[in-house]
Amino acid sequence: MILQELVRRTNDTIRRLHELEGKMENVQERSSSLESTSIAKLKSLNDKLSELEGRIKDMDSGIARLESGMEKISKQMGKMARQSDVKELERMFELLSPIRNEALARSFRQEQAVQ
Asked: What is the pTM of this model?
């Protein structure tokens, strides 16, 4: 009887031990799978990060070119006549126009008088 109880307990302990070993193997497999997945995702994130860094550098150089172009345009705009300058010139031409018209009329009259 005692021997049978000891055998039964030993068998029960061995069965539990096998169950625990199976559970440990499952945990190790899951851990290994998670590690592989994590490594793959980390590599993917690093690749995307590198791509973004490249795009940001391209954008920086594009912005620098735009700023340079804007500076050139600004300098050229400074050299151009302003609308107020153009209007002032128009007024001056209008003032000169009657004088010129009068001079033309005088020379026309002189030519007709000669004829």
From this structure: 0.51
